[in-house]
């Protein structure tokens, strides 16, 4: 069991204290741990400063009962709640429990992934084979043609022939039961999806190719961003990104130092 009472008052501060300009303006009911009910003082569990709710173990026992959207809201109450609600194990449990998923593998690139676990967050991976069409896949998986096109950002049926796989919307949540989902950033869907492989698991070759394409696109976006920030050509931006081991901040700092040296040396 952890210590129930931290002495660090900062942990109890709201995550956005600037919203509270004057504590005198806060009504007593907002800062008290009790409320009046039929003339009697009753402890209010809705007050996040209630001493029992700053104990990590007690708070965790409460938060693990929440649905994922409510868990995301709880993370916005104060720093202690944010620390507990942001625990990966807690988030994963809340994400998979409603659908009875066995496991979720992978780390999302953004914490916002854990804010929602609606059925639209999931998809089935289908590897394209000869004879496949969007219409035939819609029939096979009992989904709408437009649902497949929308998820994969396809403008026409012909887009299927340039791809190794398609993501299929989940129409029957029963297929998720005891399944293992892989968190993937799909280059065509352009978002992170919990992908279910009905035939076992990800194809290593396909995964390698998708990761390479995703990495290339991400690198291109970083170079474009550096090029605009530095006001240089793409090759110069790529050079500074390479010498800084792919760290954009370090690349910009190195460029700024070189530019400062050139000015001091009278080269520019």
UniProtKB/TrEMBL annotation:
Source species taxonomy: Eukaryota, Viridiplantae, Streptophyta, Embryophyta, Tracheophyta
Compositionally biased tracts (Polar residues): 18-34
PANTHER family, per database record: LD22649P, LYSM AND PUTATIVE PEPTIDOGLYCAN-BINDING DOMAIN-CONTAINING PROTEIN
PROSITE patterns in alphabetical order: LYSM
Family matches, as Gene3D superfamilies: LysM domain (3.10.350.10)
Pfam families tied to this protein: LysM (PF01476)
The encoding gene: LOC101243744
Domain LysM: 124-168
Positions of region (Disordered): 18-37
This protein's name: LysM domain-containing protein
